[in-house]
Design brief:
heterodimer; A: alpha/beta; 12 helices; B: alpha/beta; ten-stranded mixed beta sheet; nine-stranded mixed beta sheet; 8 helices
Chain lengths: 487, 415
Amino acid sequence: MASNEAIQKDLEAREYDAGFVTDIESDTLPPGLNEDVIRQISAIKKEPEWMLNWRLEAYQHWLTMEEPTWAAVDYTPTDYQSISYYSAPKSDKDAPESLDDIDPKLIETYEKLGIPLREQKMLAGIKGSNVAVDAVFDSVSVATTFKKKLTEAGVIFCPISEAIREHPELVKQYLGSVVPQQDNFFAALNCAVFTDGSFVYIPKGVRCPMELSTYFRINALNTGQFERTLIIADEGAHVSYLEGCTAPMRDENQLHAAVVELVVLADAEIKYATVQNWYPGDENGVGGIYNFVTKRADCRGDRSKVSWTQVETGSAITWKYPSCILRGDGSRGEFYSVAVTTHCQQADTGTKMIHLGKNTSSTIISKGISAGRAQQSYRGLVRMGKNADNARNYTQCDSLLLGDQCGAHTFPYVEVKNPTATLEHEATTSKIGEDQLFYCQQRGLSEEDAVNMIVNGFCKDVFDVLPMEFAVEANRLMEVSLEGSVG
Amino acid sequence: MNLIQQTRQDALALFEKVGLPSKRDEDWKYTDASRLADLLELGEADTSLNIEGLGITDLDAYRMVFINGMLNEPQSNLPADVRMVSLADLQSDVADEDREDLAQLFKISGDEPLFNGLMALNAAVATGGAAVCLADNSVLDKPLYILQVSNQNNVLRHGLMLGVNAQAQVIEHFISTGEAHALSNCVTAVILKAGASLEHTRLQQEGKKQSHVARVEVKQLRDSSYTFHGVELGGILSRTDLVVSLSEQGASCNLNGLFVLDGRQHVDHHTRVDHKAPHCISRENYRTVLDARSHGVFNGKVVVHKGAVKTDSSQSNGNILLSKHAQIDTKPELEIYNDDVKCAHGATVGQLDDKQLFYLRSRGISEAAAQELLTFAFADEVLAAMSNQVVRSYVEKEAFAKLPHGADLDGLLGE
């Protein structure tokens, strides 16, 4: 089909349009990883001793672990001694009061990306809602807005290093309780060296008055980004958290090993949405971000609910399985994902739904689009334990292939130990149907529009559940990823 | 040393190198092969077992009977136009114009998909087996029924080679007598030449303590067609690797599986279909019914290689757990390196449909009977693909008897 070839060609020619480097001096630790580096990071963050010990424990354990190789991705192994584990913008003053205190170049970067840091002005056109941005520029949170309004509601939303200092009781109680230090190779590394991230605590019965949002951006050359996010929704609380990322273009592979922990107590709900558009490398797969992320939610309370939504278009290598442990009776987990891989990108992503409580339910909708020479895998696990009476799961994972060089793979694990559990799993893989294209064209649409429409329709199930504030961002990304290349 | 002896020696060396699979191997994650470690020694085969009345007695077929891994010639009768070479003949230095062809069926290499040490061991120590060759354009007028009775460790290795446009129906039936802890290790290698067609049934009814490991390896050439029915009713631990290679254009395969398990039975089927050529079709349908503390494992992998355009593949796997202690692990996998494909898979785990239950009960059928009937209907859908009605009704009866209240309902099944 001419149109498929056209898309392919365009996809191949597609360049990373968020690729630019902001030139600010960085305060960076020399490359290498040892206990001293960890002590230094801990000292820079003014952390209490228990935190340092926690990091060191993780580090000791990490030394005994091996990098996992089971994922269907192929990459040059990272030399962990050649990475610098800390980088902070020079102009960082302790918690800048207003935007005027912030390095104008930084603001410029965000503006290029269209990030609504300047109050809600840029978002006003969307919904007129308030979005608090805890902007992370490299490793230090630079600005936090809307703090006052959140404080009034009793919501704690701050950089995790601040939380460690100011809310040690909460951090001590929950940090590592969902993703323990020994969980996996990358999580252990993160525990040892994480430099920043967000901390959110929503007290009992509070509905967070606004959507919370963090924009990550990797900047200084050769710094790995180790974010740690911890979100706690106490009984009956509700929060929607948005995370979006873009990164400047560069040649060397960069490691990103984040950990996200969500704790959901009874009747609480967390919605976690991600738009990920890190630099995917050039068309030959040179450069690009390694994205090895551990994301997990623990539905501890009855009737608690977690929803993961992700739009993944970036990174050279993605290794990411947002998971839900459905412990509480009647708890619910959702996973909605759109992943686009082009050129030489490789993504091994999926989810885990661990049903432990009674009447738990989960939904998995995963849409993969693979083009160029990209390889994409869905790897999922649905486990229903002995006591998960009446557990229910519905899984659908569809892949769309564009081009005869790409690959799409599915590895769904299903483990059921309860006779009352009901599970359905469906997967399909195909290219855009010629009959579909023909039908659209016969109605007067151009080939490009038709392809666009079909791709959009393919992803619709997932875009529909994105928060309003994010849908625009996601659409923009998809436009860049596919539409722009078609037209 | 001839080709076969060489093959055996290589296989033994390979086994010594790799040993038994462990739970750390991804393909053996759910099945503990270490339980088989004590069952690898082969003793003197006891060929005196009484096999009177065993097997599908009313089946009109050519028969081959193996007792503890040894061919029992008096009980066997083979069609005149089928050339059968026993393993012993293959090993002897007697010249055979097709030895190289046949040796292919016995070859083993560590690079094959789903390879494991047990298969190497099989090649190395197999005591019996048959290489059946069907000439081009010949059609076997009656099914070939291979009955394999054991009460000891036994290792069998068969080869089936169908010539161009040849057609056959082969039924392998495994039965153990007695309650010994023993292991049957069986490999069947199949080569289907252009346009050949084979319907292959494996009916596993080993004894309560007998374990069973098997590998069925099928290589299909142009426009050939292969239908597999794997029925698992017996044994304590049973593992089958089914590896089908669609090597040339237009080949198609149809793989059906049914497990009806109870007690502490553990049955694991790993299937792998390689689409290596354009315009090939694969269909897969597996159903399991698991009671008591039984454990079912199904892994269905479809690999679409580069260049295998217009591939059409679909797979479905349905599972019903009847008990709180039963467990199912299923993993339908797709690996696709090509865009011009239509692939789908689906898996379900669930219970019986309330509406269907209600319907039957409203017709005056008791709840237990209604459940039984629906469970049976669920399982029987797989058996419907069997073309041989004698085999099918035998399997239906045996499967029905394994359901919790099956015996009471025998009348409902009819004749």
